[in-house]
Every structure is written in structure tokens, then in C-alpha cells.
Amino acid sequence: MEVAQKTWDPQRAAFVKGGGTVWDGMAYDPELNLLYVGTGNGAPYDQRKRSPAGGDNLYLSSILAINPDTGRLVWHYQTTPGDIWDFTAVQKMIQADLVINGRQRKVLMQAPKNGFFYVLDRATGELLSAKNYSYVNWASHVDMKTGRPAVTKQGDYYTGPKLLYPSWSGAHSWQPMAFNPKTNLVYIPVIDIPNFWVDMPNSGGKLKFVNGFFTTAGITPDGAFDAKTLKPLFGTLPDLKQIKAPRPGALVREVLRAWDPVKQKVVWEQETSNGYRSYDGGVLTTAGNLVFQGRGDGDFVVYAADTGKQLKRINTGSTIMAAPMTYSVNGTQYVAVQTGYGGTAIVTPISPKSAAATRVNENRILVFKLDGDEVPKPPLRNDEPFPSPPKSDATPEQIKSGEIKFNQHCAQCHVFSPNVTPDLRRISEGVHQNFKEIVLRGQRAFMGMGRFDDVLTENDADEIHAYLISEQANAYNLEHKQEEKLKQRASKH
Asked: Is 86 a catalytic residue?
């Protein structure tokens, strides 16, 4: 990708064609000797920049069946032709033998980001069914003759910001789903949330591109959404109070959903969050009619696989994003799961509903058995006060310019809240003194903070630094005002 320049040129960079990466789901059928590979979204998202002539951009957001001996493509199915919504098809694929229309079929099942559940003949790639397993408004249905989604007017965000279901996080992401051959149900950790897709150059805001998104952006209207704060950068968006969910339930919700892949319908569901995304974990199902799922709020929950009845709920104090696994030793069955907030969640602040918002975010492996001991919880968070900011002689114009550049290049990883990456309003005196060495010349590359002198100039770094000092001063002053109010209240009593 041609971005190694002293001055970022979004128009030049945006025309580079890319995407279709393979970063998650694969499956292998030893009988058919076929390797199934899921491919990712287009990059950049805006197809007008990626592919001005349009078209399907074949093999983006697709399932490929490959002969592993020769590397040749045997068949393919594209779930989202010409993808402009980050609707990857890399999610886990499950092989099963199902009776469909009275005939036993060897099938491949996937619930990709775009919200439709696909059942394909895994020998030929024939589309057997495609029904939305979550609320979808970017497309009305999948045409069973052509296999193509029927895109709606709501799906076209080039004509203005659109509230789209599902969000760019997908109706289902990397967290594994599970299939139980006894119930013939698939258990999907569904992300039933929307986002506003914004065509930034035409939105009226000052932000024209974001590194990683380029000229489009997806903004989730969760409890942290503030239209007034976003307006200078992204243009006018409706206030959160004005946004109504177009389907029953809260605007933002996560759901564990039991899906019948033959009848193409929901059999049962359990809502796992409300109002905020908390990044719930993947799913395990067992022959003992059980379904296990860890949740963002720290609960580890066991359900009856056939009915969805909650059988057990254990609070661990740790965010759980991974899928559980099970094994047996000397006749005793164990269920284990890795805990910890991170991964793809770093691009957003830690949800106030997440266990990581109140307790230290420890990465642990928890192992459960019947009649086991109580789970030890991590200590409560005790964030240090905001440090006093250094003096700055930056002008308001420089600070505003720094805000735009921060959002373009830095905000994908660094957010102003507790997270797995540093909140840059809390940087120390030593970091302030070495800011340009860190940002431009990779002084902390060994810690994962690479150098940015290929896209940022010395002046860019100075303006970003000025913006961060301003934000640190705001946070520091607000914190001290709150402390003074608490002292005054205490003195009255």
C-alpha cells in the first residue's frame, strides 16, 4: 500500500485496491479433500475509491473451496458482492449432515458479519438456504436463484449517513458459534447493534479520512454516543434520544441465539446485554444438552441446549471473549475458558457494562468442574489521578488541527477511557518530553508503538501533542473540581 510518504495523501492511498484477507475461519473435509477458506472485506471500504468501475470485486467476502493438493479453486460463494460495509465472510464454518427437503445433504454453515445464515452444499457450493439470523436493513433478502443480497436504499450511505444493521462489527464476528448434532441447532453469539455509516468527504465535517477506514466511518450509537461532540468531525448526526430502534428491543443489544439451520428460524434466545456492547464470548455446546458462554460482564453462563433455560451463572469478575472448551481427566470433566478484555475491542472504550470497567483486566485461564471452588476475582480498578499537564503555548487553531490528526491516525487504538492501550490524557512528564521520539522515530517500538514518520510530519506530531495536552488539562481540571465539590459536601456534614 503506497502510504509511506511525508505528507498523507488520502486520495492517492484510497485508490489502492485491497482487502479479501484470510484472518479467521477455515475448515477441512477429509472425505471431499476440500479446504474451506473465508475471505475478508474490501479495503478501503469505499468502493468508489477501491474500484471506480464498480463490480462484485470477486472473492472479497467469500467462501472458497480449495483443493489443498493443487491449490486450485473448486467452487466459491460470495456472500457480499462489492462489499462496502466491512461484512467479512471469515467467521467460523461448521460442517454437518442435515436432512433438507427430505434429502440428506453434506453442508457447510456460516453466520458471517452481514447478518444472513448460509447453508451450502459443501461438495458443490450450491446455496441451500440464506435467511437473516439477526435484524438486517442493508438488504431485504438473499435471492435464492442468484445467491445475491437485495441491497436496500438504507444500505446506500453515499447519499447521506445511514443507520445500518448490522454494524461493521457484524451480526456475528470472530467469537465462535457452535453446532449440536443432537438438537440440530446452531448457537450464535449475535451482535444485534447498528452503526451510522458516514461518507466523510461529503458529510460536512472536518474529518475527511481515518487511517484504517479511509474515507468512510462506522459510528456506533451506544451509551457513549454524543452527536454534539462528533459533529465538528463527522457532520450532523441525530441525537441519541432521537434514534429509535427499527426492531423490538434496545437500540444496542447482544443475544445468544439458538438457530435451526433447516427451518431457518430462531428456536430460543437469551439477551446478554442492554444499551452498550460488552463483547460477549464464543460458545461451546456438549452432548449433555448444555451450552456454555462467557460474557462481557464477567458472568459464565450454562444453558439447556434444547430450551435455552439458564441452569447456572457464575460471576468471574473478568471479561470473557473467548469460547470455552471441554476435556476429561481420569473420568472428571472440566470446562476451561480464557478471560480478558482486548483483541478487536481496543478500538472502543471499555463498556461500563464490562467486568474490565470495574476490575483489573487480568488475562487468566479459568477451569470449572462440578462442585468446584469459588472463582477468585481480580482486584477492583484504582485508576491513578490525571497528572498535571505541562504548559503549552499552542493556539486554538493548532489544537483543533491536532484533534483532527489524532482522530485520523491515533484514535483507532487510543481512546479517552480505560482500555488495553494507554489513555493519552494520562501520559507522564517523561513521555511528554520524548513525544516526538516515540511517535515519529519508534522509541517505544519494542512495546508495540511503531514509528509514524512515514505518514506524520514534525508539525503533525506537535499539533497532536498540543491537542493531547489540552485534553489532559481538561480532564485534570474537571477531576479537581469534582474533588473540591466532594470536600465541600463532606465539610457540611
From this structure: yes
Provide the CATH number for the domain around residue 458: 1.10.760.10
Helix, strand, coil percentages (3-state) for the chain, rounded to 5, are 20, 30, 50
In this model, does residue 257 exceed pLDDT 80?
yes
362 falls in which pLDDT band (50, 70, 90)?
confident
Distance CA 122, CA 105 (A): 9
Comparing 84-98, 113-127, 219-233, the range with the smallest average pLDDT is 219-233
Instruction: Give the span between the Cα atoms of 246 and 440, in whole angstroms.
Output: 45
CA atoms within 13 A on the CB side of 251: 19
pLDDT in tens, 315-327: 999 999 999 999 9
Do 401 and 269 share a domain, yes or no?
Answer: no
The phi and psi torsions of 406 (rounded to 5 degrees) equal -60, -45
Would you say residue 444 has pLDDT above 50? yes
Q: What's residue 345's pLDDT?
A: 66
What type of residue is 470?
A: S
DSSP code string of 383-435: PPPPPPPPP----HHHHHHHHHHHHHHTTTT--SSS-SS--GGG--HHHHHTH
CATH number of the domain that 229 lies in? 2.140.10.10
Task: Indicate whether 48 belongs to any domain.
Answer: yes
From the candidates 86, 280, 299, 462, give the one annotated as an active-site residue.
86
Distance CA 177, CA 171 (A): 12
Structural domain ending residue among the three candidates 277, 303, 335 = 277
Domain hosting 462: range is 396-492
Q: Cis peptide leading into 44, omega within 30 of 0?
A: yes
255 and 113 in one domain? yes
CA dist., res. 333 & res. 319, Å (int): 23
Provide the 8-state DSSP code for 175: S
Report the alpha-carbon distance of residue 29 to residue 122 in Å, rounded: 9
Determine, yes or no, domain membership for 78. yes
Q: Tell me if 385 is assigned to some domain.
A: no
Last residue in a domain, options 227, 250, 277: 277
Q: pLDDT by residue (tens digit) across 66-91?
A: 999 999 999 999 999 999 999 999 99
Confidence band, pLDDT 50/70/90 cuts, at residue 212? confident
The secondary element (H helix, E strand) that includes residue 492 is helix 458-492
Over residues 245-254, the mean pLDDT reads 92
Residue bearing the bigger pLDDT, 17 or 474 = 474
Count the neighbouring beta carbons within 10 Å of the beta carbon of residue 312: 12
Q: Is the pLDDT of residue 249 over 60?
A: yes
Residue 170 falls within a domain, yes or no? Answer: yes
Backbone φ and ψ of 286, nearest 5°: -125, 165
The span from the first CA to the last CA of the chain, in angstroms, equals 64
Domain count, the chain: 2
